[in-house]
């Protein structure tokens, strides 16, 4: 890298968007927690906090994306800045991998250690007799300590359809990437539009799956460790699919505005990396949460 690249390294001005995003996440976390706690009560205000947080987050995304796009289109970014973006996106995805590994680790610990111990395995017969004498060490746990019985979510049906939807979306985003590298903008628009439509379809099917779980299976967040891990893993994955769909939509609109080309298109690459990451997480989730 030449000295001129270092001399022209662009240092953005101080931005208010990180603190705005932090405030949004605080409202979302607080509102989501209160909404779950107040699910069966009247007069709760948790959902107001949740919707306020989502509104602030959308406002932050619009403002931050607008600033970054404006800087990029103004030619302020150098090769070194491009490297910084690549490193930043790589570390962000790595942090997301660690995030999901923590939840998969909790699922693994519950299934491999906690359930057998509670059932009297590994010389823990006294634990079983004292804590839950009638407990059966099987997975999924369909009976809670309070005696409530639920049903497990089958891997066939909506989960399998959603898996196919995301697998197809990985193919369409790959074709879009190939088309962009060849400057075939019509194909880029088509395949990106298909990918976004598939992402929205996945989210719609997941909402239908949750309604089926709550109303027909009796599977809720209060359904013991099985319900907790099921909704935490699938719910957080759904949030990531939502974010990935937003990123793809922003890039898609930029393509329509004449932005990005075969030489400079890291914005597209970053969104595609993230989308492939979301797809891989779902495949792991489908196997370990639904099938096994």
From TrEMBL:
The chain crosses the membrane at residues 17-36, 48-69, 90-110, 157-176, 188-205, 225-253, 273-291. Its EC number is 7.1.1.9. GO terms for molecular function: cytochrome-c oxidase activity. It is an enzyme of class 7 (translocase). It is a multi-pass membrane protein. GO terms for cellular component: plasma membrane. It is found in: Cell membrane; Membrane. SUPFAM superfamilies: Cytochrome c oxidase subunit III-like. One of its GO terms (biological process) is aerobic electron transport chain. PROSITE patterns: COX3. Pfam families: COX3. Keywords: Membrane, Translocase, Transmembrane, Transmembrane helix. Residues 5-292 form the Heme-copper oxidase subunit III family profile domain. It comes from the Bacteria. Belongs to the cytochrome c oxidase subunit 3 family. This is cytochrome-c oxidase. It comes from Pseudoalteromonas xiamenensis. The lineage of its organism: Bacteria, Pseudomonadati, Pseudomonadota, Gammaproteobacteria, Alteromonadales.
């Amino acid at each position: 890298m030449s000295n001129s690249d270092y001399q022209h390294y662009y240092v953005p001005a101080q931005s208010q968007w990180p603190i705005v995003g932090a405030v949004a996440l605080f409202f979302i976390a607080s509102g989501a927690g209160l909404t779950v706690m107040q699910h069966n009560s009247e007069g709760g205000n948790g959902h107001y906090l949740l919707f306020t947080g989502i509104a602030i987050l959308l406002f932050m995304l619009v403002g931050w994306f607008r600033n970054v796009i404006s800087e990029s289109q103004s030619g302020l970014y150098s090769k070194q800045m491009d490297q910084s973006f690549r490193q930043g996106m790589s570390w962000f995805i790595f942090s997301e991998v660690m995030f999901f590994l923590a939840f998969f680790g909790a699922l693994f610990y519950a299934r491999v250690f906690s359930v057998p111990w509670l059932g009297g395995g590994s010389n823990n017969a006294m634990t079983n007799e004292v804590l839950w004498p009638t407990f059966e060490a099987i997975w999924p746990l369909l009976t809670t300590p309070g005696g409530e019985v639920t049903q497990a979510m089958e891997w066939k049906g909506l989960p399998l359809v959603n898996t196919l939807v995301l697998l197809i979306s990985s193919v369409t985003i790959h074709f879009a990437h190939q088309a962009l590298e060849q400057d075939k903008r019509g194909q880029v628009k088509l395949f990106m539009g298909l990918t976004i439509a598939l992402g929205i379809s996945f989210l719609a099917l997941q909402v239908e799956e949750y309604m089926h779980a709550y109303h027909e299976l009796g599977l809720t967040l209060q359904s013991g460790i099985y319900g907790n891990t099921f909704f935490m893993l699938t719910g957080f994955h759904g949030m990531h699919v939502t974010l990935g769909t937003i990123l793809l939509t922003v890039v898609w609109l930029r393509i329509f505005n004449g932005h990005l080309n075969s030489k400079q298109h890291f914005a597209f690459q970053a969104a595609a990396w993230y989308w492939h990451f979301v797809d891989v997480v779902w495949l792991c989730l489908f196997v370990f949460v639904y099938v096994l």
